[in-house]
Amino acid sequence: MFDAPDVEDSDVHTFLSPRLGFAYPVTENTVFHAQYGKFYQMPRLIDLYVSKNYLNIMLLDHPYYDNTGFPNLEPEKTTSYEIGFKQRLSSLAAINITAFYKETANLVREENWSTDIQDIGFMQNTDFGTVKGLEFNFTLRRFHNFSAGVNYTLSYAVGTGSNSNTLRDITWL
Question: 2-57: per-residue pLDDT in tens?
Fold first, then answer.
């Protein structure tokens, strides 16, 4: 079904991932900190490639649905911001409060293409998501063989590729 002329080289993706962070001691007991970073992650190999033999068998013999992969997927990219402060309460206790914001683009989503014979899924970079929140951390240093830490994170995440039925929907039905 597929021959050598049907195949072409995929795109090459090259990115820089800058990261910058700093901390500034405001007082002897208080430290202000901030961070910025860009991160890239390659898609899963199963989303990129399907072997020629597997694809031929699935397209000719499979009666329902198949996912073909897409080798020109771009890496998922994330831009992250963080700002906060750490306050020493005593020689044994400290709190750290941090606000964060993260944008993620080029998330992989399956797009469906219907034919008279079967449905075929193509992976595409069509989704986007954001996460924002606050993190609260209390640390009690070791005192008489006892130490403790409490962490609470409040976050709000939204994305374009999911809904309340995402886990319920089965793509091949």
Answer: 566 666 777 788 889 999 999 999 999 999 999 999 999 988 877 777 766 766 66
In degrees, rounded to 5, the angle at the alpha carbon of residue 153 between the alpha carbons of residues 39 and 155 is 65
Return mean pLDDT, the chain. 83
Q: Are strands 76-88 and 93-114 parallel, antiparallel or unpaired?
A: antiparallel
CA nearest neighbour of 121 among 133, 131, 108, 132: 108
How many domains are contained in the chain?
1
Domain-embedded: residue 102: yes
> Quick check: is 172 in a domain?
no
**Cα-based distances in Å from 65 to 54, 60, 61, 161:** 13, 11, 11, 20
Range of the domain at 145: 4-159
Cα–Cα dist 155/173, whole Å: 34
Return the amino acid letter for 60: L
Confidence of residue 147 (pLDDT cuts 50, 70, 90): very high
- Domain assignment of residue 167, yes or no: no
Is 50 within a domain? yes
